[in-house]
From TrEMBL:
It comes from Staphylococcus carnosus (strain TM300). This is NmrA-like domain-containing protein. Coiled coil: none annotated. InterPro entries: NAD(P)-bd_dom_sf, NmrA-like, NmrA-type_oxidoreductase. Transmembrane segments: none annotated.
């Protein structure tokens, strides 16, 4: 029995959408903060359980009778490591035999983007847990890159902070690759890097956008933070997001690998593919 955290998030939904092609719904436990968001899972026969990373009793109930855990990383900025530690401890208590964790290719002890430090700390917890695990190091979500891209376009110009090349990779491709790892009998890579095959900067994205001819203009880091806060984004979140651009300037997201292509049997989409498909 496989239990999945974050089952109603974008990645979780893409994983389950593909997973049910290979496993019976009755063999899947989907954890969510609200069952109302998972009615479609219930209708399919998936075991849906309410779950909160900060409620250890709900974690224990959520993991009951499971043998494998797909730990989709928490998005609660500032509390992620605590959440992951609670889950890993509960997995050990529940007798879970294998943990699959959604990490990142940029995982490192010190990073300009604090989420990478979270992944590194979580991988250390997994190493120390004694539970066999696979830390799936995903490329940066291309959908996030597309949001920065489209939000930055004004009057024919793309305004973003200085940035470097990034291994932008879609949720859909990553989910399909992860499912192939989940169902494999002989996948032995402990830290697989799942990425698209092309590194893309925002300047390159602007040059390759087909809907309109864009001028590319870099803005200061502070201007970026100011723009977000004026649009009601909390300052600490704005600075957190700025870290993505700063880290990319230091080439923290430049790992690429062909594992994902081999797993899904096609070339993964790039950020350029995503923005040209969406064309807002």
């Amino acid at each position: 029995m496989l239990v999945i955290t974050g089952s109603t998030g974008q990645l979780g939904r893409d994983v389950i959408k593909d997973l049910v092609k290979y496993r019976k719904p009755s063999e899947i436990i989907a954890l969510t903060r609200s069952k109302e968001k998972a009615q479609d899972y219930i209708d399919q026969g998936i075991d849906v359980r309410e779950f909160d990373f900060e409620d250890k009793e709900s974690i224990a109930k959520g993991f009951k009778d499971s043998t494998e855990l797909l730990l989709i990383s928490s998005n609660a900025v500032g509390h992620e490591v605590e959440h992951h530690q609670n889950a890993i401890e509960a997995a050990k208590n529940a007798g879970i035999k294998h943990i699959y964790y959604t990490s990142h290719t940029g995982s490192k002890a010190k990073s300009q983007f604090s989420a990478m430090e979270v992944h590194h700390a979580t991988e250390k917890l997994l190493e120390d847990s004694g539970i066999p695990f696979t830390s799936i190091r995903n490329g940066f979500y291309a959908e996030s890159g597309a949001e920065f891209f489209f939000d930055g376009i004004h009057d024919g110009t793309l305004y973003v902070p200085a940035n470097g090349p990034v291994n932008w990779t879609t949720h859909e491709d990553l989910a399909e690759g992860m499912v192939q790892i989940l169902i494999a009998d002989n996948f032995t890579e402990k830290y697989p890097n799942l990425t698209a095959q092309q590194l893309v900067s925002f300047e390159e994205a602007a040059k390759n956008y087909k809907a309109e001819d864009l001028t590319y203009q870099e803005i200061s880091d502070q201007d970026f933070v100011d723009i977000l806060t004026k649009n009601h984004v909390p300052e600490h979140i704005a600075k957190f997001l700025l870290g993505i651009f700063i880290a990319s300037r230091e080439d923290e997201f430049t790992t690429i690998d062909n594992i994902l292509e081999e797993l899904i049997g096609r070339k993964p989409k790039t950020l350029i593919d995503v923005i040209n498909e969406e064309q807002r």
